[in-house]
Amino acid sequence: MALLTKVQINSAVDRAWEDVPVPEWGEGAQVRLMELTAADRGYIEAGSVVANGQSPALRVESLKTYREKLVGMALVDENFERLFSNKEIGQLSAKSGAVIERLAAKVQELSKMGRFAVKEAEGNSDADPSGSSNSD
User: Fold this and answer.
1) The whole model's pTM is what?
2) Cβ 99 vs Cβ 25: under 8 Å
3) Burial level of 114, CB count in 10 A (0-12/13-18/19+)?
4) Which domains are delineated in the chain?
5) CA distances from 132 to 2, 58, 126 (A)
């Protein structure tokens, strides 16, 4: 099997997506959620960490909007373009907490984060991740 080139890697469509019903937002309403990019995931995760010298209040502020960030970065239109810019994500804070929680859980599932990452790892626990032999 030939190794992939940079062009092949960059052109690969590798992010999962799902259309999710949101009846609270109207009869027959649904949104499209897409797996987070590596950059978006890093941005969200970095906001959950307190660096040396930073106030723990910054972490609390970031965690207060964790779910909105997950949803806002994953909401896309029919052309897979994000609906909310990073600056607009705060608008989701005014929406139902139950709805945002449900959508955030779906984003975590699509992105293999949190408890969904654990389930994925448990399913692959016997696999050799490198594909190489373990000779001594």
Assistant:
1) 0.75
2) yes
3) middle
4) 17-121 (3.30.2220.20)
5) 17, 43, 14
Residues in the chain: 136
With a cut of 70, which residues of the chain have pLDDT below it?
A: 48-63, 116-136
What is d(CA 44, CA 13) in angstroms, rounded to the nearest whole number? 22
pLDDT tens, residue by residue, 92-123:
999 999 999 999 999 999 999 877 665 555 66
Please give the backbone phi and psi of residue 88, each rounded to the nearest 5 degrees, phi first.
Answer: -90, -10
Cβ pair 75, 30 in contact under 8 A: no
Output the six-digit token pair for 78: 């029919």
Cα–Cα distance measured from residue 51 to residue 41, given in angstroms and rounded to the nearest whole number: 18
